[in-house]
Amino acid sequence: MPDHKDYYAKIRAASIVDVARRLIPERITVDKGSTLNVDCPRHDSVSKTSMTIDGARNVFFCHGCTTGGDVIHFVEFVTEGSVTKDVRDRMPESHRRARDWLANFLSLPTLASQSPEEAEKVERGQIEKERLYAVLGAAAEMYHASLLESPRALAWLEEKYGITEEIVRHFGIGYSGSADMFSRLVNEHSFKTKHVLESGLFIWGNDERPHALFRERIVFPYHSSGRVVYMIGRLVPWADHVRSAPKYMKLLKNDPMRHRYVSPHLANPIWGADVLRRRDLREVVITEGITDALLTSWQGFDCISPVTVGFKKRRRARAVYGAAPCRPRRHRAGRGDLGDRVAGIGRDVPRAQRRRDRSRGRRAPARRGPGRCAQRATRVRRR
Ligand SMILES: [Zn+2]
Question: How far is the CA of 78 from the centre of ligand 1 (A)?
Answer without folding.
Answer: 9
